[in-house]
Amino acid sequence: MLTNNLLKRTTLIETAPSLPGFRQFIGAWLCTHRKNLLVDVGPMNTVETLIGTLSRMGVRRIDYVLLTHVHIDHSGGLARLLEHSPATMVICHEKAVKHLTGPSKLWEASRRTLGQTAEAYGAPRPVEESRLIPHTEVSLPGLEILETPGHAGHHLSFSWEGMLFAGEAAGNYYTWENREYLRPATPPRFYKDVFLASLDRLSALEDQPICYAHFGKADSSRGMLKRFRRQILRWGDIIQKIGTEESENPVRRCVDALLHSDPELSTFPHMDPAIQERERYFIGNSVKGFLDF
């Protein structure tokens, strides 16, 4: 019954930047059951949209932000949101505090890695340390915090009263016209054994609905995690085979091979061209993580 009540009070608010093909790409999860929680806040350049949506929904107070990781598409708008909501506290990884209070290195790394996409997300601003609660110091009834490194070194997942918010630890999950699409997010630096250990940690939880930052929800966490683990192993086999061959542009060859052979990517031909271009970019970035590994 508790999970059913929470489902009714859980909303995905889109926080996508104004880029071609990025519609329904990323969001912040709002939970209004017992406490008002936000899981991630999105980029700096879309945080006003988030704030406006919260206001239209009549949400006047956010008790906690649960921050999965510090990548700027998840945390970039945090300082502005905290200005808007002065009572809000942020639960984050203990090693994320320095990146949030002093985000200049994070911003420069984002610009090097993402280029124009980082500019579209916008530069993060410093967050006051007094607003941050390291995850090792949290005691909130109904909240279970799991360290799930892999997509990012300091990644957290949250189980809140029977719903799992996995950030990008469980991959990216989309649906188009009732077709499913599941892909890894494994940018460099990627450590497959660490990533798989995080999946096993999530799979050990009781089965529950699973919510993805990119960009949707599925009913069975264990079912989705089982599919995703198989996909990681499949990608590893395909990429290792191509990566050991002498050829030009191994990343492109890997992307083409994955799109051809991975059933979890079979929705790709049905996507709009702009979304296909976006996905080719992010698949390629994930391939680079495997090749470096």
Quick synopsis:
This protein has 293 residues and is of the alpha/beta class. It has helices spanning 2-8, 47-56, 72-75, 78-84, 97-101, 104-114, 116-121, 192-203, 221-243, 250-261, 273-292; strands at 10-14, 27-31, 37-39, 64-66, 89-92, 132-134, 143-147, 156-160, 163-165, 172-176, 179-183, 210-212, 216-218.
What does this structure look like?
By secondary structure, the protein is an alpha/beta fold. The chain has a domain at 1-141: Metallo-beta-lactamase, Chain A (4-Layer Sandwich), CATH 3.60.15. 40% of the residues lie in helices and 18% in strands. It has eleven helices and 13 strands. A hairpin with a 2-residue loop joins strand 10 and strand 11 (179-183). Helix 8 (192-203) runs antiparallel to helix 9 and helix 9 (221-243) crosses helix 10. The chain starts with a helix and ends with a helix.
Q: Approximately how much beta-strand content do the residues carry?
A: 15-25%
Low-confidence runs:
none
Overall pLDDT: 95
CATH topology name of the domain at 1-141 = Metallo-beta-lactamase, Chain A
- Helix and strand sequence: HEEEHEHHEHHHEEEEEEHEEHHH
Main attributes of the structure:
293 residues, Metallo-beta-lactamase, Chain A, six-stranded mixed beta sheet, 11 helices, alpha/beta
Helices and strands, with pairings:
Layout: H1 2-8, E1 10-14, E2 27-31, E3 37-39, H2 47-56, E4 64-66, H3 72-75, H4 78-84, E5 89-92, H5 97-101, H6 104-114, H7 116-121, E6 132-134, E7 143-147, E8 156-160, E9 163-165, E10 172-176, E11 179-183, H8 192-203, E12 210-212, E13 216-218, H9 221-243, H10 250-261, H11 273-292
Parallel strand pairs: 3-4, 4-5, 5-6, 9-12
Antiparallel strand pairs: 1-2, 2-3, 7-8, 8-9, 10-11, 12-13
Helix pairs in contact: 8-9, 9-10, 10-11
